[in-house]
Amino acid sequence: MGERGNRQEDTKERLLFCAERIFAQKGLDGARVDEIAAEAEVNKRMIYHYFQSKENLYVEVLKYNFGKVYALGEKVFDPVANPLDNLCIIIREYFYFLANNENFIRLLSWENLYDSRHARRLLSGYLKNAMPGLSKIFQAGVSKGQIRPDVDVNQLIISIHGLCLVYLTRKELLHSLWREDMVSPVRLEERLNHIINLVLRGIAV
User: Fold this and answer.
1) Is 161:90 a contact under the CB 8 Å cutoff?
2) TM spans, by residue (predicted)?
3) In Å, what is the CA distance from 101 to each residue of 24, 33, 174, 177, 197?
């Protein structure tokens, strides 16, 4: 790729980065193209050049973030590892991914307000690609006598997601109750260990 191509990619990535922050803060309806362009230090025409519309830019931001989650699963999945160990690693990586990506959490919250009209179209594809790996872990655990065969994999995914997400979306409320920094390294690790223990006790033979 030549120098011009590199500049174009840099501009596009900068727009995605700035748009992510503003969409996370204000949602699709509240974000303004002028504001995103100013933050990225480009002419707003570049947004329409690369993405055609504000809504398409928003969808690309969602794709980028869901892609990071999918890549995370691909990175940590080990088909020859102990199934329960593999599951624990996946939970750990996902929990800390959420803890370190507040913009992603806020984007999910906005999507809930929009009835997930954009996310549901994107997630089905990522989930379809991720399910074979998760199913292999589950089936290996059943075959080894570690996981109960009656466990519903879909419900397990929902439970893990909820256990991780609720803590991080309610951290300010929890802080008001216990007057502690709920996202300190110690508290995060405590929460993660609780989630892992709860999940393992719920699925183990």
Assistant:
1) no
2) none
3) 11, 23, 19, 24, 24
> What are the C-alpha distances in Å from 174 to residues 138, 169, 170?
33, 10, 6
CA–CA separation, 189 and 180 (whole Å): 14
Location of structure tokens 């990522």: 126
What is the Cα–Cα distance from 139 to 121, expressed in whole angstroms? 28
SS3 115: coil
> Which domains, and CATH codes, for the chain?
1-52 (1.10.10.60), 58-203 (1.10.357.10)
* Residue 32 token pair: 């303004």
| pLDDT tens by residue, the chain, 205 residues | 445 555 667 889 999 999 999 999 999 999 999 999 999 999 999 999 999 999 999 999 999 998 888 887 777 777 778 999 999 998 999 999 999 999 999 999 999 888 888 888 887 777 777 777 788 888 999 999 999 999 998 899 899 999 999 999 988 888 778 788 888 999 999 999 999 999 999 999 8
Entry field: residues in the chain: 205
Taking CA atoms, 61 is separated from 18, 50, 121, in Å, by 10, 13, 14
Start-end of H helices in the chain? 3-30, 33-40, 45-51, 54-76, 83-99, 102-113, 119-143, 153-169, 171-178, 185-203
In angstroms, the Cα distances linking 63 to 44, 58, 185 are 21, 9, 29
Which amino acid is located at 185 in the chain?
P
21 and 47 in contact (C-beta within 8 Å)? Answer: no
